[in-house]
């Protein structure tokens, strides 16, 4: 079976013009949609299943933005004690904490010289459906 991977503009048809022609979208440029030209944005591939409750699965590609300020409820890339983690942020008792999507897991405080919120996740690309 041969599959044609071109784009359809609606102009190369025979017979009558399709009324759906006004609704056709041009090529999709993920770099533009995800704004990857911005120097503060970069892709991060997920390893692990700690955030499946947030709809983030192992193998997904997250778009991290180092210029986006942290906010409660957002997912972020965090350096903690030499490890790079992706977790949901919470603001409790005057400090940032990391929440796992796993039940029964205690929040981790983001504190000390070896802890830093690097970037906030602004997008997700799933390559496996």
From TrEMBL:
Domain Peptidase S24/S26A/S26B/S26C: start-end pairs: 14-121
InterPro entries: LexA/Signal_pep-like_sf (IPR036286), Peptidase_S24_S26A/B/C (IPR015927)
Sorted UniProt keywords: Plasmid
Name of the protein described by the UniProt record: SOS response UmuD protein
Record organism: Acidiphilium cryptum (strain JF-5)
